[in-house]
Amino acid sequence: MVEIVVAPNAGFCFGVKRAVKLAEEASVKNKEGRVFTLGPIIHNPQEVGRLKDLGVFPLDREENLSEGDTVIIRSHGIPPEREEALRSKGLNVIDATCPYVKAVHEAICDLVKEGYFIVLIGEKNHPEVIGSLGYLKKCGGRGIVVEKLEDLEEAFKHERVGVVSQTTQSERFFKEVVGELALWVKELKVINTICNATSVRQEDVYKIAPQVDVMIVIGGKNSGNTRRLFSIAKSLNPRSYHIETADELDPSWFEGVKKVGVTAGASTPDWIISQVTGRIREICEKACSYSSSQ
Amino acid sequence: MVEIVVAPNAGFCFGVKRAVKLAEEASVKNKEGRVFTLGPIIHNPQEVGRLKDLGVFPLDREENLSEGDTVIIRSHGIPPEREEALRSKGLNVIDATCPYVKAVHEAICDLVKEGYFIVLIGEKNHPEVIGSLGYLKKCGGRGIVVEKLEDLEEAFKHERVGVVSQTTQSERFFKEVVGELALWVKELKVINTICNATSVRQEDVYKIAPQVDVMIVIGGKNSGNTRRLFSIAKSLNPRSYHIETADELDPSWFEGVKKVGVTAGASTPDWIISQVTGRIREICEKACSYSSSQ
Lengths: 294, 294
Known about the structure:
Two copies of one chain form a homodimer.
Chain A: E1 3-6, H1 14-29, E2 35-37, H2 45-53, E3 56-58, E4 70-73, H3 80-88, E5 92-95, H4 99-113, E6 117-121, H5 127-138, E7 143-146, E8 160-165, H6 171-184, E9 187-191, H7 196-208, E10 214-218, H8 224-236, E11 240-243, E12 259-264, H9 270-286, H10 289-293
Helix pairs in contact in A: 4-5, 7-8
């Protein structure tokens, strides 16, 4: 029998679970009206599909909204000026911004009030970062997004720098940036806004990937946190694969395999993880040489 | 001819130059009275000897002081309660504490006022650190000295941590500690109190040691910043030697040598550096095979 190790912290984080629940509730409450999410509620096409069946649709074009429609702000959050614009149109706005992301917004404004130049460690085009930058602007602050060490140069010109992080940032890069900054600027204040869910999910991969024959990472191909899980897995185990659904599992990956590790990004629902482990067992009943010979 | 590369930032730093100047002035003003320094004014027995000739003596036993004596607080600083005790004895106290060290004392008290638990990165038994801990106590704060990463554990129990550094701390360790702390605590405020003189002196060694045949580090054997320069040199060039004076130069070190690097710790006066480079030239005129054959 093939042994499958599922990472204890695979899948949905607190913020995503909450956003999906709010979307489900909205669909129940608004049977008559239309319910939209501002972009896919999570980086997972399958779960987005399931919500569509419940009547919750990712918004295509903002012009299509009309008074009385319900719009759900997803867990990433949005810039405050965009939220105000939606409310002023008479829409029913449901804020499913993750409380940990709200904490980033608050930390930014607190640091701005204290006079710091802001360094937001994160991906420049990530919706969460775009939302957070909106709060930086609203609070009248100045700052930059740091995606790679070279981006830091602008920050070195400032004497007092305040640091926050995208909630799904890698701990290693965060540590590197903070250490470097501390050497260059006179005063540094750091609010660690990395969400614990991300780090424990990453720690699982550091533990599991080196001790399995094949490592499977499940999650949207466009999900940043899943891609990071996959890059960690790949660096520790060359036989690592990134899939979105069980259908993508290729039997040839499992030849001669005894032990398989499975993890999943923050936006992967449990039912998809179960489908994947089920499919691996099916494949291995037929093809994994060790399991078939035992 | 042997080529000698003297590090541009070798020797006395601003704080030491200032303390020596204050000691010289005190010796002139107090021709009649006695002038003492609280411990050797710098980690350099030769310079201490020169000051003795001017009438400035390192204090042996505090009991030997009597009213009207002049005492000089050296650049490392002392705990405030000790300074008060000296003043209350009717002594003429001259404070030669380095202004950069005073900045550490102020940073500690500012951070304590803001409610931070203090991490002082430095050597537990260094006089500067002992002085700074005195200010931590006076300001009613709590904190620890971190000399190695394991010392940090106590700090992880606190949500809000303020960091300062011994002025002569290595930048690499400082960066490591700050990065690690940022991951563990909720809020971190760092005042970078590393003195630039130390870092530029260290950077010189990183540049020079790998490109010379022999690297000479001059400075007191009991001087922390010199020992660190030597350990950096040794890691980059196994033919590195730590000496206090030109007399310790061993001709056998220079056999077949074309290029010699020279640096010196913060407490080494220029006249000692000149003696060393002069002696190296002397040795190489006789013994360095390349120079004698060219």
